[in-house]
Amino acid sequence: xxxxxxxxxxxxxxAPEKQTLEGKNKFLGFWLFLGGETVxxxxxxxxxxxxxxxxxxxxxxxxxxxxxxxxxxIMTMLLLTSSLTxxxxxxxxxxxxxxxxxxxxxxxxxxGAAFLGFEVYEFNHYVHEFEHTFTSSAFGTxxxxxxxxxxxxxxxxxxxxxxxxxxxxxxGLDLYTAPKFYVASLYWHFIDVVWVFIFTVVYLMGMVG
Amino acid sequence: MSTYAQKKGFGATIWDxxxxxxxxxxxxxxxxxxxxxxxxxxxxxxxxxxxxxIPANDFLSAGLYNEILTMHGTxxxxxxxxxxxxxxxxxxxPLQIGARDVAFPFLNSLGFWLFFFGGVFxxxSWFLGGAPDAGWTSYASLSLASEGHGIDFYVLGxxxxxxxxxxxxxxxxxxxxxxxxxxxxxxxxxxFTWSTFVTSALILFAFPPLTVxxxxxxxxxxxxxxxxxxxxxxxxxxxxxxxxIFGHPEVYILVLPAFGIFSEIFAIFSRKRLxxxxxxxxxxxxxxxxxxxxxxxxxxxxxxxxxxxxxxxxATMAIAVPTGIKxxxxxxxxxxxxxxxxxxxxxxxAFIPTFTMGGVTGIMLASAxxxxxYHDSYFVVAHFHYVIVGGVVFALLAGLxxxxxxxxxxxxxxxxxxITFWLFVIGFHxxxxxxxxxxxxxxxxxxxxxxxxxxxxxxxxxSTVGAFFMAVATVVLLINVIxxxxxxxxxxxxxWGDGRTLEWAIPSxxxxxxxxxxxxxxxLDAYWIEKMDGKTEMxxxxxxxxxxxxxxxxxxxxxxxxxxIAAFGAMYHGNHAWGxxxxxxxxxxxxxxxxxxxxxxxxxxxxxxxxxxxxxxGGKA
Lengths: 209, 621
What we know:
Chain B: It comes from Cytobacillus purgationiresistens. Chain B: Its EC number is 7.1.1.9. Chain B: InterPro entries: Cyt_c_oxase-like_su1_dom, Cyt_c_oxase-like_su1_sf, Cyt_C_Oxase_1, Cyt_c_Oxase_su1_BS, Cyt_c_oxidase_su1_bac. The structure holds 2 protein chains of 2 kinds. Chain A has a single domain, classed as Cytochrome c oxidase, subunit III, four-helix bundle (Four Helix Bundle (Hemerythrin (Met), subunit A)). Chain A is built from 6 helices and no strands. Chain A has helices at residues 21-51, 63-66, 69-94, 98-130, 138-167, 178-207. Helices cover 66% and strands 1% of the residues of chain B. Chain B has helices at residues 10-19, 23-51, 62-96, 105-124, 140-145, 150-178, 191-222, 237-270, 277-290, 306-318, 320-334, 343-366, 368-374, 378-408, 414-440, 457-487, 526-532, 555-572, 579-599, 609-614; strands spanning 547-549, 605-607. Chain B has a two-stranded antiparallel ribbon with strand order 1-2. Chain B is globular and about 70 Å long. Classes of the chains: A mainly alpha, B mainly alpha. Chain A binds chain B through residues 3-4, 21, 24-25, 28-29, 32-33, 35-37, 39-40, 43-44, 47, 50-51, 54-56, 134-135, 137-142, 145, 163-164, 167, 176, and chain B through 103-104, 166, 170-171, 173-174, 177-179, 204-205, 207-209, 211-213, 215-216, 219-220, 223-227, 229, 231-235, 238, 242, 245, 595, 598-599, 601, 603.
């Protein structure tokens, strides 16, 4: 079976992302990579918790002074919804409906970009209203590193989705492109899961002191 | 004669190696680069021993000594031992499971070039204002106080080469899970493949903490971060934890493949099935698991408190159990076997008492209360050289002799090999045995000199003499390699005569597609089973058909080069205006070439059935 063979709705396999050996390898390799990423974020979380509210003098802003629920709630909703829309995209991928897949991926990208916009606003807000910067304290360094690493992942994910959508806009789905879309959506879910932890550990636990 | 085996010019050969995605060629690249860094690290060791040969020596200044000491450790662990292990994993593991290549040939090449550029970057520090000087562990308070760019070279160089290692680990895991030949169940995999598997899992979970720790150090030193600065609310102990959460699994990353190589050697040269195969697999997995539970035994004197120390102490001692299982299994493999004392076997036999001694001092150090006595003394130096040289380096030398014929199609001289062995083993014990006593007598590690009349003079001289034995052994090894290459006497599939696993069933070196037809594996030691049935080759599991192969690519080289350039920008952005632009240009090269890789289709090519049938080289299966 050639990777670039043409398919129809009837001949499209149930799990196109794992149909070829290359696809299977990609699928497994990416899951393993996410395992490594989990440890990476776990390390960042541990460091953040160790350095939370650790500031050089008592006048500096602490977590409970900085965070406000409405903003992060909106961000959380945007990112969770984008995960849902990427599931829709994969649903259409499995049904060999390229147009609808592209559409839902587009929605995912828009939601992700909106999330990123809010994050930029949020950081800007902390820097200018509270003088809470990357260099102002160990707390600041740990906060911006953890949340910034996540933001960097979001940005990379967006570029990845856009590259895939533009590159494949004309040729559609086959067993060569299907694993690419699938793996990108896995990455997107992972980013979403990490955010759930950031929302809980950084923001909710930060609010209660 | 196949069309694929044409003679090539020198330039074409270089280009071929720069772009290759073939696991066997990447193995050779790892072997050359790792061998080069091994010699660099060895020279650094010689400088250390010359400086310490006599009291109050002024061969090296204190500052230069710190740099050499740091680079010796860093080079040996990251740039010599790991790549040499990767060389054997790449050369042998795909053959052992009956695969035509690794799962991600492109990433395999990327992993090598990342390691290579990281290693070169780190070593350029010698010429650009001084090497790192805070020890290979680079504890944060020392590192942050270190002037110049030495530590920045350490951080950025290890970051780049660490990424390569992580990629390699994932690649091997997927290869072993997805690409085993028909009949090759998990419990039929050779022990070296098993140890590659467990090691790769350790790499996957141990390297991300190092990545994060290096990022933190990078941010603190170059971008105004405060992770480790207590005045800004930071905590210097975080580095210690993260470094050792990586660092302890790292020693198992090094030693498990060594165990794997020795397990192959004991079985081959005792002409017996490995004793207790399933318990060996179990012990390997258990060591891998426990390896993550013991990092704080490097920090007993940090002051974590008696409860933490007790827990980590007991967990550490527990590792002696699976390791003991292995030692006894090797002994029982030899028991009643018909042993031939080839060079690899000599190393294997010397390994058992040596490694056991290192293990016993390990148990001594694992006792937290005693550790306060041994801490930071030469006793520790003796201990870890017994496990790392006695375990890992012996295995690398043994593996080099064992697998040289498979990698190059020629045989290293047994005579010179045995000379190397005796010189190296005698030199090793001469150097390090006496260091146990130096440590117990109170000589601290990491000092650049000592005074007369402290009772350290004679022992240090003995140690230095031993080091020269090892240096001579290495020179003999190099002569051996050169002589072998010049003589170029070709050998057949199974030069040792008693090969048990799949790699010995195919030509040396194997054709670039490895197996013309994938072999059918009927049990543990698949090739041995066929031999016992009176056959000379494997039974094929499939008819001859087209073979899909990946295309060569120059992109891995460019991706790695981009990071190499970016690292200079990151390092000098505080001193020079061109720093940030160079950082951006480097990242653009890296991400740009990743983008090109992403949008340009690369389906590979097929070797057609007819060409395979003409190819007399491939042999069956």
